[in-house]
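Practice problem: predict the structure.
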Amino acid sequence: MDFFYAPGTCAQGIHLLLEEIGVPFKPHAVAFAEREQYGEAYRKLNPKSKVPVLVLDDGEVLTELPAIAFYLSQAYPAAKLLPSDLRSQVRALSLLEYITATVHMRGFTRIFRADTFNATDPEAAKKDGRAVVEAGFANLSASLGEQDYLLGDFSIADAGLFFLEWWGRTRAKLSLPANLDAHYERMLTRPAVQRMMAREKASP
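Answer:
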């Protein structure tokens, strides 16, 4: 498999899942700073100019974090990335969709790229984004409760939560709810997370 990512992006979620599975894959870092994602070669791979992208051994191209995460959970069941019962699987997908479509895209994107939402008043966009993120963390904190992981055991949903927590703590300098802080620290002890962060040169 070939895995295309940009260090420090949401692709961290898929990156760490690949490390959890432990199967060979070829990592390809996409240079966002040089706008490589908009170049002709990359757009042939993914016209959406986004990461993550996973190219399977037969050449099929998979895009979008929740879809790739679900594929990995089903293709490599021994890794136990999803529980076996349908309702828990749906809950994991619901959490991952909320993480990516709401907290990431409606929240953090406004914080990190405020001028694209409000060129005349980027601080207003940042404020709106921060409100979405804080509400998102409150909802995810309630979902986590006193469990170690969102579904009790580690799953694809925790891979998504991790990149939000990392963004919140290291890039946005936000205070996380106590149980999310504990979840983040717990994730940092996982060898797969450590390998991912070493490859991406990411500091905790």
